[in-house]
Amino acid sequence: MSHQCLQSFLQHLEKQGELRRVSKEVSPFLEVTDLAQIEAVSQCPTPSKTAGEFDLGRETLGGEALLLENITGCDFPLAINTFGSYFRMEEALGSRGFEEIASMISRLTIMSPPSGLKDLISMAKQLKPLLSMKPKRSKGNGMCQEVVNLVKDGNVDLTRIPIIKCWPFDGDPRKVGYDFSPKQSRTSEGGGRFITFAGMHTIHADDREESKPKSHNIGMYRAQLVDETHLAMHWHIHHDGAAHWRSWKAIGEPMPIAICFGGETVLPYAATCPLPPGMSELLMAGFLHGKGIKLVRAKTVPLWVPANSEMVIEGFVNTTCGPCDWEPKDGELGEGAVFEGPFGDHTGFYSMPDRYPIVEVTAVTHRNNAVFPTIVVGPPPQEDYYLGKATERIMLPLLKVMIPDIMDYHLPMFGTFHNCVFIKIKSQYKENARKVMHAIWGAGQIAWTKVIVVVNETVDVHDEHAVFAALQGIDVHNDIEVVRGALDILDHAAPEIGAGGKIGFDATPALPGSELAINKVAIITVEKHQGGDGANALKKEHQKNPQASMIFAVDSDVNPDNLGDVFFNFCACFDPSRDMHYFDTCIGFDGTTKMKGDERNGKAVRPWPPKLIGHNRD
Questions:
Q1: What is the DSSP letter of 198?
Q2: Integer angstrom CA distances of residue 487 from 104, 152, 503, 554
Q3: Phi and psi of 27, rounded to 5°?
Q4: The pLDDT of residue 615 is above 60
Q5: One-character DSSP codes across 219-281
Q6: Residue 353 Ramachandran class (φ > 0 left, ψ -120 to 50 alpha, else beta)
Q7: Do residues 418 and 460 share a domain?
Q8: Residues 557 and 444 in one domain
Q9: Is 191 a domain residue?
Q10: Is there a domain that residue 393 lies in?
């Protein structure tokens, strides 16, 4: 069983030597990030015993969890890096390795229809525990409501909560090229501070009269601090929270929301888990917790909230806000909206500002002596890296059900989860790899993947150097698949927001170390001054190095000997529909920063974000 609440987990970590208290005063503006970044690349007290099997070398990283007891200008202590190592992530999920949880799920997915009464009884015994994993709705107050502060009574000031500013340009559009100030954006009083680690509870408008709404969703989205009683809600178009918002917009009513911090330690993972349609995050949390999550009624919105949360911010999301993909040149920002961002994101770049709706806060409830949890979002590895890798391992059985050809897969750190995936299959027939690519591009949240590399069963898919070696042996004329499709809206290289090219490499026939692999791939760096410099550099390299069948170009600040660094920048800055250059015997891939003059094939270059200074990716 996981821990009942955040504070019991913090006490457990302290006993394990995994948590360090910091009593000195720490500013919520950038200083928390500085402390967290030191921990992120430090050795952790307790390495994971199992993570080395799928992420060798990183099972020892993550430093210590931090409990910052004195945050400048705030009324609550702050916990950070709590989930920031494989060991602590495993402890949060009930002191189990990810593979153990995956095995539990696998047993449920491979059940066969009973052949008789004995089999039926056996199956019933296996399924019976699931009945106790549904959420437990309770009357009265929960621990999260020991203190109730209502906006109507003048008792709410969100600026006193230790919401942090992670990166220098956060919240200031001028820093990323817009002639538009935070005041014009309607966010200046928030100072670029963002909620980064909360479960956002919403329901579909069709369920607004239901006592137990089936659509109850928990998503982990960011929210920008606007002022003492307002936030700005950011979610991606394809997320359930955004779909719920559109349903409330359709009936002309504001959408109720409960922003919940802490609670059972499985909740943050469940909120980020890409579950099949119709499966509740609360049910997943109950499955991981070993019993149902206790819920109580919120005080000012018609929603159920986890009773053991540290804190809950209640309110209503304005639905008069216009759609995203707005820029100041487009005219008025409109009612109920702010120009949210920029925000230093997990992609390693700032996500650019855009129009998003305002949350009108109605109440803040919390337990006595509450602790506020947060994370730094930025270049991996951060805390969300370990949440993402947990999903990689735990969801493998369900991915195999959807795409039976898949033996295993790997989400490399340089791919930041939506830019690249490695897939291992046992190829049974011609174009088997292409079938798998297209299946992935149509399967849940993994469908947003931009780059897929498929290898055969002889390749260790978790050994990134082995995958790169297999990639060198492909036939560029026959083993590359380029398509168009939906992309994550954080993909700044896409010619349109949320849409662009995708590419798959069929490396299943490749024989690592064979003669075919010699000098087949070249990596060049480009000192870029104007649009077209990347394309010109690729052409010159092809003329100089005709034996190379693939040439990857990246910016001059990238170390070409560090494959992780090369492909982090390549995946982030490349769009297959615009940035592939075909020569007689070679394909050039332009993974440089794009600017005016790099438009090709009718595909635009959108405003380009600055890169965050992050960790070295090995």
A1: -
A2: 32, 42, 12, 21
A3: -80, 140
A4: no
A5: E--EEEEEETTEEEEE--TTSHHHHHHHHHHHTT-PEEEEEEEE-STTHHHHHH--PPTT--H
A6: beta
A7: yes
A8: yes
A9: yes
A10: no
Assess contact for 489 and 323: CB atoms under 8 A.
no
Domain check: are 448 and 547 in the same one? yes
Number of separate domains in the chain: 3
Same domain, 34 and 161: no
For residue 65, which phi and psi values (nearest 5 degrees)? -70, 150
Which of residues 47, 75, 100 is at a domain's end?
Answer: 100
pTM beyond 0.90: yes
Which residues, other chains included, contact 115 with Cβ-Cβ below 8 Å and sequence gap of 6+?
none
Report pLDDT digits (tens) over 363-412.
999 999 999 999 999 988 999 999 999 999 999 998 998 999 999 999 99
Residues 6+ apart with CB under 8 A from 508: 425, 427, 432, 433, 454, 455, 456
Distance CA 618, CA 615 (A): 9
pLDDT by residue (tens digit) across 430-445? 999 999 999 999 988 8
Looking at the structure, tell me whether residues 368 and 409 fall in a common domain.
no
Residue 410 shares a structural domain with residue 312:
no
CATH classification of the domain holding 281: 2.30.110.10
Task: Choose the final residue of a domain: 51, 84, 100.
Answer: 100
Paired tokens of 473: 């042996």
Sorting pLDDT into bands at 50, 70 and 90, what band is 125? low
Q: What is the rounded distance in angstroms from the CA atom of residue 171 to the CA atom of residue 356?
A: 13
Q: State which amino acid sits at residue 300.
A: T
Q: For 220-243, write each residue's pLDDT tens digit.
A: 999 999 999 999 999 988 888 999
Domain residues for the domain of 194 are: 133-373
